[in-house]
Amino acid sequence: MTVAAGNQSRGEIAPGTRDDDAASATLASVELEVAQLLRRAERTHASGEPTGARRTGLDRSGYLLLHALGTHGPQHINALAARLGLDASTVTRQVVALEKAGRVRRTRDPDDGRAVVVEPTEGGLLQLTEHRSARADLYSDVLRDWSRLDRALLAELLARLNEGLDDYRRRRDTD
Amino acid sequence: MTVAAGNQSRGEIAPGTRDDDAASATLASVELEVAQLLRRAERTHASGEPTGARRTGLDRSGYLLLHALGTHGPQHINALAARLGLDASTVTRQVVALEKAGRVRRTRDPDDGRAVVVEPTEGGLLQLTEHRSARADLYSDVLRDWSRLDRALLAELLARLNEGLDDYRRRRDTD
DNA sequence: GGTAACACCTTGTAAGATACACCCATGACG
DNA sequence: CGTCATGGGTGTATCTTACAAGGTGTTACC
């Protein structure tokens, strides 16, 4: 599915026009909403909420890490760090935590004694699934008044926003 | 502006149908994207990025707090806490930090000796504006390939998602 | 008015996520 | 071999937040 992708009046020739104002109002609004979303979702994700972290025992970091492992298979710490856009030291700690909880396994790479292969356990994958489903239920409640179309739009736009942020980051890092 | 609000085929009578699967896939996707967004935006917001917090000296908490003050005027700590969905102790600390930075003023409420009125300073409001504009520039870069329409859609859907999360929270708290 | 209950804010303490700067072990190459 | 690069782990620091407990001012009620 692709959201209306044309329609852009490029070439904003005259700065300070009404159009320009509207455009920057939109951007400001996106920015503000994202900032607020961070706060809200953080709290919904983290502590407050018995359906989430506590019950399934997966916090956001663990969830995303397991997701990466589930989707892209066993990987080295550095690969995970790159994929998740995190510092390797952070990933190390997260992996250690997950290992303690029995959700991943850590083994030395036989082909490279420096490297560590991180691999999800059965239990880890199971918990990932459970967590995902619990979270989906939650969002089903949060979005209960939304139309199918709007939900799909939201998913799509969020995905694109994430891509945009990734690209932005890469651009800045490459400088 | 309102996004397509109808179209929902309610009454999901037969669980396990294809429609149902699609719906829960959408939810799962929203959930995952939000989780990822948190991570990304957090980092874009916080440290990594010289255009943001460091340069304007406003972190996310301060930004949202000042925004609340700018939009709704001087308020008590508790009112802010309620509005921001935070614990009062957290707001106290944030206000103290902003006060140290000269961005808000704290005075005893003459009508109620227990309460503290928090009020933005000139400089605080100025910095809020600057920050907002810097952030808008950032998002203008992040969303540079997006059509006007899609940006507006994103803003709208994010706003609704935030509302949804708020409502959800209220529902749970009221239980 | 006096006391008890309540409201508002602050401080103490703790937890999670993350980064950066270092350090150690291993591998690669001359 | 010896030097440099690479992969990971540790020490430390920051930021954000919550819950619990305490101080001080208000209100309500006898």
TrEMBL record, chains A, B:
Residues 31-163 form the HTH marR-type domain. GO terms for molecular function: DNA-binding transcription factor activity. It comes from the Bacteria. Residues 1-25 are annotated as: Disordered. GO terms for biological process: response to stress. Residues 1-10 have a biased composition (Polar residues). This is MarR family transcriptional regulator. It comes from Cellulosimicrobium arenosum.
